Amino acid sequence: MKKKKVTKTNALRTLDQKKIAYEERAFAIEEFAHMSAIDVANQLGTPLELIYKTLVAIGNKTGPIVAVIPSNETVDLKKLAKVSGNKKVEMLHLKDLESTTGYIRGGCSPIGMKKQFPTYIEQAADGLEYFYISAGKRGLQMKVDPHEVKQLVHAEFVDIIE
């Protein structure tokens, strides 16, 4: 019997190239179902506070910017605007996500996007040894050191949640 080949995502290939340690964690998804962060945390058997989501916004001066925040929190667009040097920031329209980042909803990683955008990670991650972020496709997370992610994508740890 042939072994099923696992396709690496841009995010995982980038980590491999930079020799950054990570652990892949797959979870079951239903094709058209929306999964909450609670569902993902339960499937991975990890605390909800360690599951982070990647959001993409548009700044009036900078264009696309990336926010990585705990999945149980809400991004504060005013704080994000201030730290990114914008007067106004709004969320990127879902229809533009794939063409802008190369990723789809539910599989957007701050690593391996089409272009490197200014990236801001919620400051709570600075105190963590690891967190879970999307590995670049739905149903796949990666456990990785947030400090490694910060350095790799030239991010800043900042207060960006409500």
Automatic annotation (TrEMBL):
Q: Which domain of life is it from?
A: Bacteria
Family as reported in the entry's similarity comment: Belongs to the prolyl-tRNA editing family. YbaK/EbsC subfamily.
Specify the species. Vagococcus zengguangii
GO MF terms listed in the record are: aminoacyl-tRNA deacylase activity; lyase activity
Protein name according to UniProt: Cys-tRNA(Pro)/Cys-tRNA(Cys) deacylase
Record field: transmembrane: none
Look at the named UniProt entry and state the broad enzyme category this protein falls under: lyase
Supply the gene name: ybaK
Gene3D superfamilies referenced in this protein's UniProt entry, alphabetically: YbaK/aminoacyl-tRNA synthetase-associated domain
Keyword Lyase included in the entry's annotation? yes
GO biological process terms on file: translation
Tell me which EC number(s) this protein carries: 4.2.-.-
InterPro entries attached to this UniProt entry: Prolyl-tRNA_editing_YbaK/EbsC, YbaK/aa-tRNA-synt-asso_dom_sf, YbaK/aa-tRNA-synth-assoc-dom
Which keywords does this chain's UniProt record carry? Lyase, Protein biosynthesis
Matches recorded under Pfam families: tRNA_edit (PF04073)
